[in-house]
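Hey, sorry to bother you again with one of my protein questions. A protein chain has come my way and I'm curious about its shape. I'm sending you its amino acid sequence along with the backbone structure tokens. I owe you a coffee for this, so here goes:
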Amino acid sequence: MSSLRRCPGTSPGGGLARRLAALAASAALLLTAACAGDSTEIADGPDVLHVLAGSEIKDLEPLLERAASEAGVQVKLTYTGTLDGADQVASGRADGKLDATWFSSNRYLSLIDGAQAKLATQTKIMASPVVLGLKPAKAAELGWNGKQVTWADIATAARDGRFSFGMTNPASSNSGFSALVGVAAALSDADGALTAEQVASVTPRLKDFFSAQRLTAGSSGWLADAYARDPGVDGMVNYESVLLGAREPLTLVYPGDGVVSADYPLTLLASASDEKKALYGKLTAWLRTPAVQKEIMTGTHRRPIVSGVPQDARFGAAQLIELPFPNRRSTADELIATYLNQVRVPAQATFVLDTSGSMKGGRIDALRQALVALTGADGSASGAFTRFSNRETVTMIPFSGSPRQPVPFTVPERNPEAVLAEIKRFAEGLTANGGTAIYDSLRAAYDRPVEAGHYGSIVLMTDGENTDGSDYADFESHYRSLPEDRRRVPAFVVLFGDSDVEEMRQVAELTGGAVFDARETSLTSAFKEIRGYQ
């Protein structure tokens, strides 16, 4: 699953320093996210291990910097989403370029045809189950303090409107995918791996559960930040490690019928050279030493994977049951599609699109291509889940010297092809001319009400600086005067061309959104990444 990616700037230190660095990195996700391909700044060399990683392990970077001196291995991390990463590995595009992968789980990757042949040794480094965290007062109100609770109990309380929660998008984040699998397996009473038939039968109960979801996100860290900013949400379904590290204490609820845990396997690729295999062996051995395992536990709140390392008391003494995982990719994909198109609260996405004169030529072509990809034209593993979903409302506001009339589309619950084709025709018809009225156009988007029962989000794409209409200060003043429900809508800003980086970061910070940098990759990659947050 994909997730926000940011170039880190942390430094090594003790456990407290690492925790502070992790918190700083988490907070910085509010401001900056880069598109696929960002990596740690390490020059290549014979002692460098190139690792394709999920953003979940960013908080280990200060520790990994010490691996060079203590294990003789420099680790160069290239961040990507799990689906994109799985596709890179299975297709062979990682061969010869990368030596290993490090995702929170290899479960989805292992389901792709041909992927197993691309993998060599897999070494589990740490563990963290996906559970429910609630504000202590809400947990006490529900009577869940120290009581055995099942996913069925949680679904019933969700259906009855007794609590609300946030969860990451299962198509974009492993924590959300793990939660979805766990809830579906528990509610379907599956004895073994989930089947497509069980997914269909449990869909009504999944609707009950997700009727209480109020926050979505593309990464577990960004979800934690969004939750901290929204006092109206009662809790999160997230990694135990994230919940234990939350800014305000949470009561953790471990469902008695089971969980799905991340085991963070550092995995050697079969194409790696003998020299890289030796580096991999040194790194995994070092990471599994009792001292480093204890540091991982203390600094990141993840469970040690090596026996003999005493576990933190905050993990509790209860033995966790691991719920079954789908053993077919088709079933996993069906579960994700069911969530997006039938179960989750539908999205209301507004795209504020720069079509000024500076967009002429290749830039407007790139914008057309990025939007068309979201209508189902992208046939990649990740592209299948980034198209506009059934029941979603999509509004396009192109702008140049002033905002144009908003053009709304509503994707139906069934047979979405006709509306998706309309959006495709709209995108292909975009033309570029005129000035750049960024803030008048953004204001027009925020002046549109959010439909009841929808997630609202705004995507702002611009390739230049504001030249017409109101300025940032005017927009900020207007934004702060809006009703609370509209101020809760995040703006995800896409940097392209000659965007004013500082002002765009201010927009994201003000609205609780994030910045995606498409200046060195592609608009298509940035738009696909943003879909995990809508």
Q: What stands out?
A: The first strand starts at residue 33 and ends at 34. Residues 228 and 248 are 8 Å apart (CA to CA).
